[in-house]
Write a structure and sequence with these properties.
The chain has 231 residues and is α/β, with parallel strands linked by helices. The chain contains eight helices and 13 strands. It has two domains: 117 residues, Response regulator (Rossmann fold); 89 residues, Arc Repressor Mutant, subunit A (Orthogonal Bundle). It has a five-stranded parallel beta sheet, sandwiched between helices. A five-stranded antiparallel beta sheet has the order 9-8-7-6-13, covered by helices on one side. It has a three-stranded antiparallel beta sheet with strand order 10-12-11. Helix 6 packs across helix 8. The longest helix is centred in the middle third of the chain and has 15 residues. It starts with a strand and ends with a strand.
């Protein structure tokens, strides 16, 4: 059974969410403060974290930062902070999704399901090699110009989609559909900050950048000669 870590200090909302996720077929472990969340993260190794930002002790931002030091599991921020600046900060800090309170229960479940699908390593088969870049699915990593770096599930999927469409512009709407499983194209800022995180991890700013931003449209991978390993 897939395990979710729910970090929420409101006891009534926490109970409602636990019932919602349990009825949807998930195992749920809960924490009502930041320290407890990090202890459960290490002890239970959940498949996904649903994270509130306003917590006693360590707040959600600190939990997110420390989580990213430990693991690349999907993190969905569920917060009453609705300002665009807060959503931008969350996505820039490494959250995979951000949903504001109040929220629709079916939308929350759909977003959790989408993140879990994208993080499933069973979907990634075979290495890919392309002009200085190698994608290694079993380690969910990218080797760029001889340097390997681990990627989050979203970052790996984003890079894979761009590489598979080399030379062609992939629009923001297409990336939301293909990478985030969001065909309605909500939360467009997720794409921008995921690309920024990907570039930072690959440190491709120090040399030729194969990822091109096409203003008003989307992004393009400019490499040549992509092929599955062994072809």
């Amino acid at each position: 059974m897939t395990c979710l870590l729910l970090v929420e200090d409101d006891p009534d909302l926490g109970l409602a969410l636990r019932v919602l996720f349990t009825r949807a077929g998930y195992e749920v472990v809960t924490a009502d403060d930041g320290q407890a969340a990090l202890r459960l993260l290490f002890a239970r190794r959940p498949a996904l974290m649903v994270l509130d930002l306003v917590l006693p002790g360590l707040d959600g931002w600190e939990v997110l930062d420390r989580t990213r030091d430990l693991t690349d599991l999907p993190v969905l921020i569920l917060s009453g902070r609705t300002r665009p600046a807060e959503r931008v900060r969350g996505l820039r800090s490494g959250a995979d999704d951000y949903l504001c309170k109040p929220f629709d229960h079916l939308e929350l479940l759909a977003r959790v399901e989408a993140l879990l699908r994208r993080s499933n390593p069973e979907q990634w088969r075979g290495d890919y090699v392309e002009a200085g870049l190698r994608l290694v699915p079993e380690r969910r990593s990218a080797v760029w110009q001889g340097h390997e770096t681990r990627l989050s599930a979203i970052e790996y999927r984003l890079l894979e989609v761009l590489v598979r469409n080399r030379g062609r512009v992939v629009t923001t709407e297409q990336l939301l559909d293909l990478v985030w499983d969001d065909p309605d194209a909500t939360g467009r800022e997720r794409v921008k900050f995921a690309v920024l995180r990907l570039r930072r991890k690959l440190a491709i700013g120090d040399g030729e950048d194969p990822l091109e931003s096409v203003r008003g449209l989307g992004y393009r991978y400019r490499g040549d000669g992509f092929s599955p390993s062994g072809d």
